[in-house]
Amino acid sequence: MAEVLLSEEERHQLVAVLRELDPAAPREKRAGPRRKVLLSIWIRHLAKGKSRSLQKGLLVDVSRKGLALLLDGPMSIGDKVVAPLEFGEGGGWLALCEVRNCRREARATRWKVGVQFIDRIEDVDGKARIPGDWLAYAR
Length: 139
Fold this sequence. Notes:
Elements: H1 8-21, E1 35-46, E2 54-62, E3 66-71, E4 80-86, E5 92-104, E6 111-122
Antiparallel strand pairs: 1-2, 1-4, 2-3, 3-6, 4-5, 5-6
């Protein structure tokens, strides 16, 4: 029999069904499926008293509620970042995100950082500027 690979959504549905069959199974922590991607991205870390210079990262997955990034250094839980997102069909968002988790990758020099969307603005041509009220989130 040939090996069959499940999509992320199919895997999520299968795990949900199996969890229903076993009442002692641990609850799923994720609110929804994630889509794996591999895309270079430039983010801005919003921090008081620090330059809002660009920081290069690698976008590794996307969900309805946030992103997972690989970065060269750690971030603190609660830190805010701005991420420009471009859509394949055109247009995009400038997204304000909050760091929800950060861990060093095993045997690697990079850090995997999970961020949750807080706010967004439409960015049709990739030239949107950070709104002034987002700068108040810098801590």
